[in-house]
Amino acid sequence: MERDFRVARACVSEAIRDFHFREYAPFAWILGGHLLFILLAMFLEATPAMATVGALTRAIYGDSAVHYPTFYLFLPSLAAIAEGFLYSVPAAVLIPLSIILTVAPMERHEERSEPVGDRLRRAWLPTLLVLVGNVGLLWGWQWIFQNGPAPLITRALPGFLGAAIAWFVGVLGAYAIAAVFIYVPIVAIRRGSTFGSALSEGLREGLGLFRFTLFFIFLFALPVLPVLLIVQSRPAFIVSRMRPELIPLALMVYAVLISAATYLTYAAAARLHWSGDQREQI
Amino acid sequence: MSRAAIRSIALALLAVVASGCGDAALRATRYKAERLLWQAERVERRATLDEDEDVDSTEALQVREEYLRLPKEVAIPRVSGGSDSTQRIAHDIARLVVTGQLQAARLSTMAKRPDLALGDLEAVIPLAGNDTTLLRQADFHRIAIYRQFGRTQEALALMREMMNRYEPKPPVNGNEDAILAVPDAIMRILRQEGDPEGANRAIQEGLVYYRALLTRPHPPELEAQIRARLIHMELEGGDWEAGFRNLEALKRVAATTPHLDYLKPELQYTEAKLVAMRPGASKGAAVAMLDRFVKENPTSRFASRALFEAGALLEGQGKKSDALERYKLIGAQYADQPEVAPLAQFRRAMLEDQLGEWERAKNLLEAIPVRYPESQAAIEAPIAVARRYYRIGNREAGQEYLRKAIGTYEGLIARDTTTTYGAFYRWAILQCVLTLDDAPAVFKTVDEMARLHKGHPFTAQALLTGAQLARKKGNLDRTRIYLRQFLADYPNSPYREAVQKDLERLGSGPVSKS
Lengths: 282, 514
Prior knowledge:
The complex is a heterodimer of chains A (about 280) and B (about 525).
Chain A: H1 5-17, H2 21-42, H3 47-61, H4 70-86, H5 91-103, H6 109-112, H7 116-147, H8 149-156, H9 160-181, H10 183-188, H11 195-208, H12 210-221, H13 224-233, H14 235-241, H15 246-281
Helix pairs in contact in A: 1-15, 2-4, 2-5, 2-15, 4-15, 5-7, 5-15, 7-9, 7-11, 8-9, 9-12, 12-15, 13-15
Chain B: H1 3-21, H2 24-47, H3 57-73, H4 84-110, H5 114-122, H6 124-128, H7 132-148, H8 152-165, H9 182-192, H10 196-214, H11 220-236, H12 240-256, H13 264-277, H14 283-296, H15 303-316, H16 320-333, H17 341-354, H18 358-371, H19 376-391, H20 395-415, H21 422-435, H22 439-452, H23 457-472, H24 476-489, H25 496-506
Helix pairs in contact in B: 2-3, 2-4, 3-4, 4-5, 4-7, 5-7, 7-8, 8-9, 9-10, 10-11, 11-12, 11-13, 12-13, 13-14, 13-15, 14-15, 15-16, 16-17, 17-18, 17-19, 18-19, 19-20, 19-21, 20-21, 21-22, 22-23, 23-24, 24-25
């Protein structure tokens, strides 16, 4: 089957229409960890929260960050670090698991009959590598962007508009990087895949389907963007003019939305990849 | 993943958690205290309590409740031993809780509930434990409340108690410990209360206090500050010889301690003032020193005082134009300094009048109560205008101006009904109505003073003045009432015996006001 935007759109609607909680469940575990982290951050005046999230905050940002309401200024960055960890380390197992469950109805019998444990053992290492690599590249991109194009944009367009455009370009760059790596776990769970082939085929697929994948990511992330924009670009405004507790609430909304968006992106990408398989078989 | 790997990860996570556990409970408590304080401050910001306006006491008390959540919901940990970090966090918590309690006291004051405010401050004592910094903070708040509600004797008693209770601390970032300023504050309050004898006694107490402090060893910065205070007290007491001796000692301390450079302007000003005070010394030399000081240190906090001193010395020498120049300079450059600026404007007006510029002098005098309502000059300025009319024989204009002056004072009272200047304004009204020979207004003012400024020295004077006028008008009942009130409110007055004899001569009569 020729993979074009018509097929990509079909994959998107299929991923949404064919949602099953069983397939989403591994992402729900990541979401649970994410929400637990934010919940602890919300109740830092409880000793267990201070001993975990508070200790982590102190280790990263120093003692001045564990005071009220200053803590909430650091929380978006801290939550981003937690998110980075959850979507790379536990996700190295949970994302391939979700993909296995998602593509199962589409797979041939011999593939489907392979034990899940074997497929996960094959997939976790390349997945971990690309997910950690993705986090590293995102960090590098953010650094380059913040020290280069972002100030140029904000200087050319002062005020909220300039800040919003700079933020949007930064996010778009981050999504573009993520789009390249998305097929590695999808390829890695397939029968006969090795560490090297998962990486090479996955990256080749990522580059070949780049525009479609970017379309998936952007489309599913659309509801996330306004929440992320407010939390990341105006934390000081929320803390000083509104209520600091709005930040963790917004982060919780963000966590739910990004979990759904990530699941749907992988589900759509897996379907697009599978449609390519069908073409080869034809 | 093998079990061993899972166990290792679990142990590593536990280690991370445990590493934060040491002070976690304390940090969590501090975080809660910070949240409660922040929320209370937020409620207050939203409550729009404007101290310049009439505050809604119910709203102020509601905000107070928010601050009181701190002592109610946060227990101060009593940490004995432990690391520096543990002790620092425990101190932070205590400071936050006491801040909540102090803020509650402030709001009680705003709600015009001194009883509640003092109760709030009493509650600080068990919270602060042995932390003298917090206890001192509470005591300074108590003084402010006593002063605001006219309980001057209690304020003075507490200030004297504080001098004995708290050892002065070395300066932090050059800032003097407020306890060192207490003797000076006592002297100023007594002067403000119209009690020069009490002020002189306070000077002697201050001298004893500072000299006693100097018998003990202190870091050079603190010693320098104590000595500087001592010199000022000696200047206030007119003891220029002791002042010179201590100035030399202070110079020695400053010379051997490089970071006391900031004291140089103060030393220069003090020396000029001492030269001016020395009997038989050339006043011209003192003026030159003061002028040089202002030129070299225009931003020093002593610059405006130096200009005023120079002006006063020049006035004493009859050099009116030169003195006028100094006073004008104060108005132009130091108009925001309430200790000197109103006085300089008053003296400037007097000199303008003497130099034939009455209209300008009158404008200057009329501007003082508007610009500096809480100053001695604001009280004297309107009466000075009326007196001038009387002096040139224009009795009608004088009377008219006295009525206008009464309006000015009433406006000043209405502007802030709790001001410590209330007794002064009413005393000034009394002078005006006495000059106008308006007996009902005199009695009304005396009654108000007896009711609102009980214990104030001006009220004692007002009661005697009222009794005198009542007798003159043949109203013996009112005379008896005023004299009896005087005896009840001023049992230690030197006039007590005379008043008692006076009452005996008048004989008994009905005590109700006619």
